[in-house]
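## retry 2 of 3
previous attempt timed out at serialization; input unchanged, resubmitting
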Amino acid sequence: MIAYKSRAGGTEYVEPDAKFSTMTCSACGSRCGPTGWDGLAVRQWRCSDCGSLHDRDVNAARNTLLAGLGTSHEVHCAKA
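## retry succeeded, writing output
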């Protein structure tokens, strides 16, 4: 429905890839979060590289937002 509304409104709809969104640190871009089936039960984790504390769902939402904006982690971290 969003893709249809986007076309009708004259905007471009791009769906970002959700791959690695829960295990990639939204602060520094390091891929150090919980992995595997056991990692799905982990709701909060701390980045081993920058020390940021993440809620799994909030972190994934931030990564999806960055991807949707066309901003890579490298560009995002270089500006910060």
